[in-house]
Amino acid sequence: MENFELLMGGLESALTPMNLLYAAIGVLLGTFVGVLPGIGPAMAIALLLPVTYRLEPTSAFIMFAGLYYGGMYGGSTTSILLNTPGESASVMTALEGNRMARAGRGAQALATAAVGSFVAGTIGTILVAFFSPALADVAVELGAPSYFALMVLALVMTTTVLGTSALRGFAALFLGLTIGLVGLDLNTGQPRLTFGVTQLVDRLDIVVVAVGIFALGEALWVAAHLRRRPAHVIPVGRPWLSRDDWGRSWKPWLRGTAFGFPFGALPAGGAEIPTFLSYLTERKLSKHNEFGKGAIEGVAGPEAANNASAAGMFVPMLALGLPVTATAAVMLSALQGYGITPGPQLMTDHADLVWTLLASLLIGNTLLLVLNLPLAPLWARLLRIPRPQLYAGILFFACLGAYATNLDPFDIGLLVAFGLLGLMMRRFGLPVLPLILGVILGPLMETKLREALTISGGDYGGLLNEPLAVVVYVLIALFILGRPFIARARARADESASVEDEKEQVH
Amino acid sequence: MSETPAGGWVVVAWAPDVYGSVALDWALADAERRDRGVVVVNASRGDALVDDRFALEEQVSELERRLTESGRPHEIRQSIDPDVAGAVLDAAEQLEAKLIVVGLRRRTPVGKLLMGSVAQRILLGAACPVLSVKPGSVPD
């Protein structure tokens, strides 16, 4: 029960008026970016990073936590009302949710998504509070070889599981690892990949990389596809649930949570698989034979799974310092910006920060429910913003942020370079997540690898002298060997549940 | 495209709302009286995700039904065009239209300054007479 007391202590320090204000800003901003397809919490946090360096780390993280949950929730609104899932995690929500909206049950779909997100987010956050300290206790004992193995696992899993092609995943990953190499070698002091440019010796600022890839890349991509056939938002009133809807929703919420949390916590990362599993389960278990015509279970389950996995992500991030999603990666770089080293010691060295963060997740979740149920029709209006104005605003903040990191125009040039890289990646279908993870985990991995090799005196066998490391490598091998089977099973399942492609009209 | 009717064409700047509906009323009345055909133009800039003034398929078929009922020669043109007023003017120029009908919303001078106006651009740019109507008016 010690964890519970600590969580209550965190709740106490999170419940100051100032911190509540930051939580509210985060939640509103998060929903804002979540509703608009193409802009996600990762981009929003990256844009906010330079602004928040003046804040207390606790306040900044309270805001980020709100942003993250808000973004997850906002995505469901767009999926339901417009059938354009903003991210892979909301694809399953769109499937039944949009049909519900077309059948005039949009208000119920929004409500079950909101309450389901709240239930899953709250249970998930409490699970994080109980698992992370235990995991961190174990993780402190881990040596460099195990750490290195875990990072390899995280990279391999995120690279091969997400997206359509492992080759594209690895291409993005190696691009990211290469970007992570730029700068002074920490052990020998040699400059690497700097091409004689003094500004590059200092390592690339993660803000510039993330903002370039996410914000500038997306803005350029949208600019290239600016005009398209506009859609109509299905009008809805205030979300509400009838008794019958509650009865049909609560079990999918809990099942979705059970699917989502472990997948979020595993380095396999992402909410794509658990939302999908939850959808299939609910379809199988449903007694109402409404699937395909707008079944409320098909919204409740995946939406809960989505948010539970969003919460699960905090376990490896807080306990091991391992990010498994793009948002976690950006949050981690924010921690580094405050001079806090992520890793198992985080739970003990910065206990107040961690517990306040977890408590603020609970608060953010509640705020989301309170704010979003009445505001849903208003959020839908955001979709009318003409994109030129919207992206002009984003570009302004992107340039401001890049310049503010070092007050050096050189960074704007870098920003443009990474923006072009981001555009190219979108054009050729390279996933962004492996690149960002590569940039952030690459240097950490290198440190651990060299540590392990120094201990073993340069003998590569030293990488295998911890039992956990061996187990992880075996897992990686099994996973790579089993991948064709997984891919085939998924392809079969995908056929049975495909989402309407966005109609795109490019001029 | 059918034969040019004896009286030429009327071009309507149309959207699935009250302004479009009243403009269409007047255009059909004029077409009836002067033996003209009706060309309905519905355009969107297409730069926002959602634009209620761009008609959905159901709304287009509803429009089609109404035009067919009127018995006048007609055509519906839907396009994504950065310049919505330009789409209407282009259609009028190409068809050598005798009349353009636009539905007008009531706006204060400040509102005009801020929002710009498709109707104003049509009024200023058209080579033929422009009939501007407000919701609530009924063709006599």
Automatic annotation (TrEMBL), chain A:
<feature type="transmembrane region" description="Helical">
    <location>
        <begin position="144"/>
        <end position="162"/>
    </location>
</feature>
<feature type="transmembrane region" description="Helical">
    <location>
        <begin position="20"/>
        <end position="49"/>
    </location>
</feature>
<feature type="transmembrane region" description="Helical">
    <location>
        <begin position="169"/>
        <end position="186"/>
    </location>
</feature>
<feature type="transmembrane region" description="Helical">
    <location>
        <begin position="314"/>
        <end position="335"/>
    </location>
</feature>
<feature type="transmembrane region" description="Helical">
    <location>
        <begin position="355"/>
        <end position="378"/>
    </location>
</feature>
<feature type="domain" description="DUF112">
    <location>
        <begin position="20"/>
        <end position="437"/>
    </location>
</feature>
<keyword id="KW-0812">Transmembrane</keyword>
<feature type="transmembrane region" description="Helical">
    <location>
        <begin position="463"/>
        <end position="482"/>
    </location>
</feature>
<dbReference type="Pfam" id="PF01970">
    <property type="entry name" value="TctA"/>
</dbReference>
<feature type="transmembrane region" description="Helical">
    <location>
        <begin position="206"/>
        <end position="224"/>
    </location>
</feature>
<protein>
    <submittedName>
        <fullName>Tripartite tricarboxylate transporter permease</fullName>
    </submittedName>
</protein>
<keyword id="KW-0472">Membrane</keyword>
<feature type="transmembrane region" description="Helical">
    <location>
        <begin position="412"/>
        <end position="442"/>
    </location>
</feature>
<feature type="transmembrane region" description="Helical">
    <location>
        <begin position="390"/>
        <end position="406"/>
    </location>
</feature>
<feature type="transmembrane region" description="Helical">
    <location>
        <begin position="109"/>
        <end position="132"/>
    </location>
</feature>
<dbReference type="InterPro" id="IPR002823">
    <property type="entry name" value="DUF112_TM"/>
</dbReference>
<keyword id="KW-1133">Transmembrane helix</keyword>
